[in-house]
Structures are given as structure tokens and as C-alpha cells.
Amino acid sequence: MPSFRELLAETKKRIREVDTAAASESIGQPGVVVLDVREPDEFEQGAIAGAVHIPRGHLESKIESTIPKLDTPVVVYCAGGTRSAFAADTMQQLGYTDVVSVIGGFGRWKDEGRPWSTPRRLNPDQRNRYSRHLLVNEVGEEGQLKLLDSKVLLLGAGGLGSPSALYLAAAGVGTIGIIDMDVVDESNLQRQILHNLDRIGDRKVDSAKKTLTLLNPDVDVVTYDTRLGADNILDIIDGYDVIVDGADNFPSRYLLNDASLLKKIPVVHGSIFRFEGQATVFHPYVGPCYRCMIPEPPPAELAPSCAEAGVLGVLPGIIGSIQAMEAIKLLLGVGDTLAGRLLAYDALEQSFRTFKVNRDPDCPACGPNAGEIVIAEYDEHCMPHPKQPPAA
Fold it and tell me: Which of 31, 65, 162, 200 could be joined to 137 by an S-S link, Cβ 3.0–4.6 Å?
């Protein structure tokens, strides 16, 4: 049986090692991943900025989902260079082709005065609250911290806004803005699960804030008890990462579309009608915008509201949950969003269908030849407003 020293010596013969100077030069190159394989308590005390943390004991089970491309350049370090050597050897056995171990590890890096920082970490209560997220490789602690730093704006605290808000708050999205100028009515409670009987007559944004802050104290709920209009939309949406659209009228949707194009903020759209729902993502200049999909609103008689035609109460829960999922994917940068695709749900058939939606090269809002976007109140046709010539 070989001794530990012999095993380490044999391992080092099979890998490439670099000193801290060469490691520092490599880390500055695009595409290079820095991998810290120390224990969590070591990592919390300080690490190389931007390092991915996978304790050595979890390397085999987590490395492939964390660094999926086998040709990714990886610089591995530990405290002194021993665990990183074994880690580099393991990665080579798993098929990684460009892995180096840092001689002397973080201890030498720090002693030489090279830059490092204390990583931001979840506190114990947060680690418990989001424990199921931490087990998901595509989220993990880094993703959860990203969610806590994110800002999502909800257009409406009604049927679609209710489930979206609840799941986004439960997921730990740090700032949730809510726009709604209505009050809670008893007829809302069949589908608007943010509210309850005790809140009838309350402002919807106030009722929503009470529910969400009781669900998750990590969340800062910002309320806008106002009508969304051309005079305030750019100020309201500024600074948000994603907008969840639960509007129930065409003027608001077109207004939001044009403003989101100006601010380059993706919009997660949802709509419901009786037993049917739709969801998609409008990612400015990446996929189609709302005007690409619906250039002009249909006649009023062909597009009755839920108040006129009704809606099954469970339906907005399904579509709103899909909107929350799409928002989280956008925030984390994982998976394929619904940008360029329209997801249609039929509750009676219990079926989902996906339709491709292309960018319209002649779109008056996002097309290559589109004029300057002007934010103004929309007439009954919801057409873009031309830029007015200067006054004589």
C-alpha cells in the first residue's frame, strides 16, 4: 500500500501545477474558471474573487453540472496545494482537458499580498429557508444570492400577479415592486390569492405587501398605488431586472412594451380567458416584442375581459406560476426561456402547445427600421406615436 506522500507524488506526476504568479496571469484571461475546493468554513474566511466553490468531498458529484464544458480552462486551488492536486487529477479522469493546480494554494496567494476578498454568504436562517434551492446545482448559494439582489416589478396584484408574487417572494427575490390602483373586492377572492376577507376594501398593493412580508422577511415590497401611464412608466420600471405583466388591457400592454424596449428590460407576459391561458417572454432585441406578436389590438367584441367573459379561478394560478418560473430563469440565466415562443394552455383539454413567434422585420417598435420610440398615452388603436417635429 502506498503512503500518503507516495500517493501525492504520483498524483502530481499526472497533473500540471503552476505557481501563484502564473495562476494570477491565467485568472485574468477570458473564460478561465477559478475553482476553490476548500471546506465551507475556509472559503467563508476569504477567497480569490470570483472563485467557484465546490468542497473537495463534493467535487465528483457537482463538477459536471457546475462546469459542463470539458475544455474549460480551470485553475484549482486549496489551502496549500494538496487537495487541489487530487482535485485536478480527478477532473482529468472525468475528461477535463485544461486543469492546473496552484502550488502553495490560497495560503501562499494571501501571503504574497495578491487580491482576495471575503465572500458574501447566506446567514444560517437563509441557509435553512432556501435549503432546497441550495441543493439545485443551477441555483446553489451563488444563485440564491443573485435572487436576493434581484428586482422584479409586477404589473397588477390580481389573478396573475398573485401567484407570481407569492412564488417570487418565497424564492427570495429581494425586491418586488407592485403596481395596482384598485381595492380588494369580494369578487377578487375566487382567484386573487394575495388577498382575503379581512382585506376587503383595502388597497390591493397594501394587502399584497402584508401577505408577502409575512411570507418572507427577506423581501422588500415596493408599492405603486397609481395608474400606470406615459407620465410615470419610465420612472417606475427603471432599475428593475424583469417585469411580470399581468395587465388585462391592450393600452397598458403596448405602453409597457414600448417602455421596456427603451429600458431594455425583459417582460414576462401572461394572459387568461375562461379556461385558456398564454405565456411568453419579450426579451428586448433578443426575441420578438409584443408588437411583433400582436401588431394591432383586436376589436373589443373579440377580446372581452375576464369581468365580461369569466375565468376559472385556478387558471391564473397556473399561468402566474409559469410567469414566476420564467422570471427566475431570466434572473439566474439558466434554461431556455419562452422568448420567441408562445405557450398556450387549455385547461379543458389539459394540454400545452408551443407556437414559434418570430421578430417582425417591419415592427414599428423593435424592427431595424423602426423610428424613435415615443412614450405617450395610447388612443384606441394603440399604435406607436411618431416623434413630433420641433415647434416652429
Answer: 65
Name residue, grid cell 409575512: 214
Contacts of 96 (CB under 8 A, 6+ apart): 63, 67, 70, 71, 72, 74
Phi-psi region of 13 (alpha: psi -120 to 50; beta: other; left: phi over 0): alpha
Q: What is the pLDDT of residue 386?
A: 65
Low-confidence ranges of the chain (pLDDT < 70): 298-309, 379-381, 386-392
**Three-state DSSP state, 145:** helix
CA-wise closest residue to 72 among 16, 30, 18: 30
Q: What is the DSSP letter of 390?
A: P
Please report which residue ranges of the chain form alpha helices under DSSP H: 4-14, 20-27, 40-45, 59-66, 82-93, 105-111, 124-129, 131-134, 140-148, 161-171, 204-215, 233-237, 250-263, 290-293, 306-309, 315-332
Q: Using the 8-state DSSP alphabet, how is residue 263 labeled? A: H
Q: How far apart are CA 224 and CA 244, in angstroms?
A: 15
The residue to which cell 494570477 is assigned: 24
pLDDT of residue 371: 85
* Type and span of the H or E element at 61: helix 59-66
| Residues 168 and 147 sit within 8 Å (Cβ to Cβ) | no
**pLDDT score, position 249:** 87
Helices first, then strands: H and E counts in the chain: 16, 13
Residue type at 97 in one-letter notation: T
| AA letter at 67 | I
What is the enclosing helix (H) or strand (E) of 154? strand 151-155
Tell me what pLDDT residue 309 has. Answer: 65
